[in-house]
Structure formats: C-alpha cells, structure tokens
Fold:
Amino acid sequence: MRDARGGRPCQRRASRNTCARARSSSRRSSGTHSAIVPTKSKKRPNASRPVAEKETQRWLDVVTHTCERFAELAPQTRCWFQLDREADSWPVLHHLEATPHWFTVRASCDRRLKLSKPGKPKYLRKKLARARRMGELHVDVAGGHGRQAREARLVLRATTVQLELRDPWSKKCRPLSVQAVWVHECGTTPLGEKPLDWMLFTNHAVDSLDDALLVVRGYCQRWRIEDFHKTWKSGVCDVESTQLRARSHVIKWATLLAAVATRVERLKHLAREAPDAPASVELSDAEIQATILLKREYKKRTETIPDSMPTIAQATYWIAQLGGYTGKSSGGPPGSVTIGRGLRDVLVAARLLANLGIAKKKR
Structure:
C-alpha cells in the first residue's frame, strides 16, 4: 500500500480487538456493549511485565466497562460472562469473582490445585476424572475446516475445586474456589479428529445435572461471538483492512462497523432460527418495501413477488440474492457476506423511499 499524500509506502497498524457482546436469555443479540482496539507493539515476555502492560489488562477493562454500563442502564440484570481460553489467567478470574455477575471461563491448561504439596502436585483433570458422571448432552457441531458436521455426545462431570493461581510477576499464590465442569466427547468423534474437550470454570452453582447443562449450554453461545468477529474483522465489514492511521479514528470506525456486523449477524440467525417470523421483527417498513422493489427488478421470469409482508427468512433470502447469493450452489443458507452486500443496496433504496414519503406528507 502507498500513502496517497506522498506516494511513500505506509504500514498497516496491527491491532487486537477486544469487545463484549450481549445476548438475552432468548438467544437474541442485543449489541456490542464494550469495545477496545489497542495497537500491538513489541514488548517484553509476559512473565517480566506487570498486568497493566499485558493484553490481560484489555480483558479487565472490558469486564469493568460492561459491569458499569449494566449497573447504569439495567441494574436489575445479572450478566453471565462467557470467555474463552485467553481469559484463563489469575487477574481475569479474580476480577470476575469480584463482580456481582456470573462467569464461565474455559481453561487453557490442566491447572494445579491448592491441595498440592511440595514435590507432589495435584492437577484438576485427574480430580475431575474421579468425579461422578453427572449425565450426557448432545450438541450439533457445524462442519468446518478439518471438522465434520455431527451430533456430538458429551459426557459431563463437575466438582468444586480450589485452584492454585500464581502471579509470575510477584511470585505470589492467589488461590480461587470455583466450580469446574468437564465436558468430553465420547463415541461420536470422526476418525482423524480430536474429540471435543472443554474444562470450564464458573462461579454458578453446579448442584445438579440441570445446573451443569446450563453452564455448558451457556458456553455454547460463545460461538456466536466468533461469527461476529469474522463478519466484523475480515468478513463483510473487513475492519482489519482499514488504512486509517490515528488510533482514535480506528476506534470510531471499528465501533461503527461493529454495529453493522451485529445487524448482519442478527438477520442471518433470525432467518435460520425463526424463519416464519414476519420481516418486521428486524426490518423497517421502508426497508421491506425497498427489498421487494429491488427483488422485482432482478427476479426470474417465473418468479412472482407479492406485496404482502414476507417472512424474515424470505426477506433475508432476497437481500442475500441482491448480494450475489445463488442458492444451493453457494454451499448452504445465506451467509454474512452476501447478506451484508445486499443490505447496502437495500438501505440506500430504503432511505430514498423514506424521504419520498416525507416529501408527500409535506405536500
């Protein structure tokens, strides 16, 4: 790339986006509640740096900001943080424990337990292997790179443990009591693939199978943020390709595109999970009318586009077709890229229709 001002090469600024996404108990996305876009730089090894200089601080900032926003706008709401293996560190775990909310964090390694003695360490996985089997859970696993689509049979075990968390900076031991839930795939792993294996830490009570299932199903919802990140970072929004140089400008642009990615993902999942709902659950009257008019312009000779209210699945299908979706030959249902492309044309046409409607009213 070259700088348009002087023709000299310009370097893209690498960044790491950390954000908090909220979903309701009905599994509907309600938006991005906190986003931090720090710029990466070369630093010393993690063990020789305080927490404030690590990527860990970004996790702490997002958790703090999210708690503050909910305390201000929805004080009656108790959040349940779902975090992946990057959050498995003593500062994040202790910070989450200090909040009034629930959390579930996936373990990044086989943690030592506080019961360990010098020369005789005790580890979490062995303790859970001896815990009683609470039950089973069947989860639909989507196909992907190196992964076959299947219904995985998961075995659940859980127990209360006290982790031996050590601060490599101060060399201090900071123990923490949590509920540990071990989910392991059994009997359904395709040949050549690794079985699903999750070690989850939570502060939610796990006294029964229903409690364990609640923890696991909650963590399954975390996969949605991976879809959001793909759409936001490298998919239809492609925020990582920005050539903006000022950090404040990058943050503003990334925040705007986060809202776009949220809506694209919401349309995609509504079309798959509630296909018979009316399109008005997500689209405005002007957007629905714009979708119908644009579809009529590019429809096949044998197609008939009625004036009646389409379902959300039908409207999303038409929007995706405007964005280049070709149906079954595309390899599956409409995805975020084609929905995002089509939505651009729909929004332009919808704004025009809305303005024309306002002009008629003024007359």
